[in-house]
Amino acid sequence: MSSSEPRQVSGCLQEGDTALVLDAPGVPTEALTFGDGPRAVILAHQAEQGPCAWDAYGRTLAERGYRVFIPSLTASPEDVMSAAVAWLGAAGVSEYAMVGASMGGAYVLSTAGELNPAPSVVVAISSPAQYNDIDALAGIRAITQPILLVAGTGDDDFADQARRLAEAQPDSRVLLVESSAHGTALLATDTEVAAAVEAALTAAIGND
């Protein structure tokens, strides 16, 4: 991590937060982290958004006792998520969950099976099976921890993509709801989705 001034997280940075810059290959990747305790949630944003898109939900998680880590997804999934896990481990986190929306879902599904330590649960909301060269379909096969796949049936073909992902990892749980909302918007507007994500986090890493 470097001490360069972070800009992508400046719009939601609050007193007591920590802003980080990871000197990853290609372009610098920023991250915002807040909350404390030994349990963490990594939040991966969707395309055309940034870390601040997760700010409101992340604050809710912090109020529930989780440490929250929100990286900017401007480097490879492996670089970003490995750095996140390494930082959290050094900060005293003993277990963590991964939640990704759309492109962020592909980020978490493609990497979770290779991370050490592994996440306790992986949640992918409106995730494509493939995003550019990020292969969530191949990555999900390597995940042995619980997986929750969520999509709206009116959101393009993302319900079908959730089914494809579940076929590749039959132990996954699939939640399809009647909604056209996508990614973070689906989580914010559908109470069934919000409750399912909360239940998955609580079952895997607890909840104060």
In short:
The protein is an alpha/beta fold. The chain has helices at 55-63, 77-90, 103-111, 136-140, 158-168, 184-189, 191-205; strands spanning 18-22, 29-34, 39-44, 67-71, 95-101, 121-125, 130-131, 134-135, 147-152, 173-177.
Description:
- This protein has a domain at 41-66 and 92-205: Rossmann fold.
- It is α/β, with parallel strands linked by helices and 208 residues long.
- It contains seven helices and ten strands.
- The model has no long low-confidence stretch (mean pLDDT 93).
- The protein has helices at residues 55-63, 77-90, 103-111, 136-140, 158-168, 184-189, 191-205; strands at 18-22, 29-34, 39-44, 67-71, 95-101, 121-125, 130-131, 134-135, 147-152, 173-177.
